[in-house]
Fold this protein.
Amino acid sequence: MEQQDKPVKTTEKKISRRTLLGGALATAILPVTSVFAKYVQVGVSAVPDPTKQPGPLPGKVGTRSAFEVPVKKPSDISSRTPLQDLYSTITPSDLHFERHHAGVPSIDPNQYELLIHGMVERPMKFSLHDLKRFPSVTRTCFIECAGNFRTGKEDMTVQEILGLTSQSEWTGVMLSTLFRELGVSPKASWFLAEGGDAAVLTRSIPIHKAWDDAMIVYAQNGEAIRPEQGYPARLLLPGWEGNTNVKWLRRIEISDAPYFTREETSNYTYPVKDKIRMFSFEMDARSIITYPSFPQKVERGWIEIRGIAWSGRGKVDRVEVSTDAGKSWNEARLQNPILEKAHTYFRHLWQWDGLETEILSRVTDETGYTQPTLKQLIDARGKDIGGYHMNPVTAWRVKRDGSVIFKPESYK
């Protein structure tokens, strides 16, 4: 016997304007037809209403929202940028990666001096004020540690894998401008850059870099560079490994030969098959997908794959994305402006069918160099590959439940 629905007793209750505007109504959820959204919230939720009381008054220094807490991941010698949390290629100054050899020195800008001597007609000392009197230049470029690569676990974030690279807008004076002031000898072929930290880090630099695009920078992203980045002035060598971009720069000595300092012999030197590689300055082209990545989760349907690509040898020419574990590749869309020796944002729209797969990216720069696989790196350099200038294609596994994990590869 079919059961009849019982009549439901209803009562009519008026809702006052005060109740409606005061936030007493529960939030309603309505379905929406969209490739990117399933629901839209309407109504007013029962949460504190910011329109009911004034907020803080204007202050001297701005702050992030309390709901946004991007942080670097520190260790004893470095601190990694949360690349997966950034929305553009510019790294906020306080999130720029750090790599120190003896901590961060405290240097009074009024006492700062930069000595330039050696094979020059007029050795000189420059104060910070002196440096700022020269014609200034501003450019955007990345800095990357030569040892910027980690692997080994599935639960690794982009920050843990490649967090030792960041990008800023830098302002300072061209090193070539200073060299012309000094009268550098035409026989000079190298210069020594020395830092003012407790490690007194020094590196030998081919002098052609000084005549090309080297800078002495004192500003970063519109403000004085941070102490962790070399305040009050540092050397900037666009596209070259981070340790050559000597921070807290205090001395430059010009010569006709490299100096073979501690850092470029005991460190930053590594085997390539039966030889030893030294002075490997340019950072090779590389890319990484920042979304989706561990520990993010995705849903079946359309997903915008996003990431960054860069090369120390020039501009990014193209980025390709694979959504089937490298069986096929599709060209991603690059975000303008595409700058030389700079992080470039890429995007690729992908419709995920819910099946387990791997997503990868690879970059080709304007010289024609294409980011290699780990196997290609090992074939070229040998099994004793070391940890410097490691730029292999990296993969993320997308599981059926939408979770995303890193695909580690062994190379030691």
Q: What stands out?
A: Residues 138 and 171 are 4 Å apart (CA to CA). The longest strand covers residues 165-174. Confidence is low (pLDDT under 50) at residues 1-13, 17-28. The longest helix spans residues 175-182.
